[in-house]
Amino acid sequence: MSVETSEGFLSEIGSQALATGSYMPPPTVLQQIDAVADADVVKAAKKFVSGKKSMTASGNLGHTPFLDEL
């Protein structure tokens, strides 16, 4: 784990602060993960699969199918 050294711990604090604007200690992160219920995962999955679909492609697009053909 990167927080086992002083340098790793400070790096973790800095990374979190840059990404989220605050620092959350590992035990708090683990508590939040443990608090996720099955229903939360199902709700997120339903939202993901029912959302508007999109596609991207690059390179030679001559044989690229349309989104509705996938």
Automatic annotation (TrEMBL):
MF GO annotations: metal ion binding
UniProt xrefs under SUPFAM superfamilies: LuxS/MPP-like metallohydrolase
InterPro entries in the cross-refs: Metalloenz_LuxS/M16
Protein name according to UniProt: Ubiquinol cytochrome c reductase core protein 2, isoform CRA_a
Lineage: Eukaryota, Metazoa, Chordata, Craniata, Vertebrata
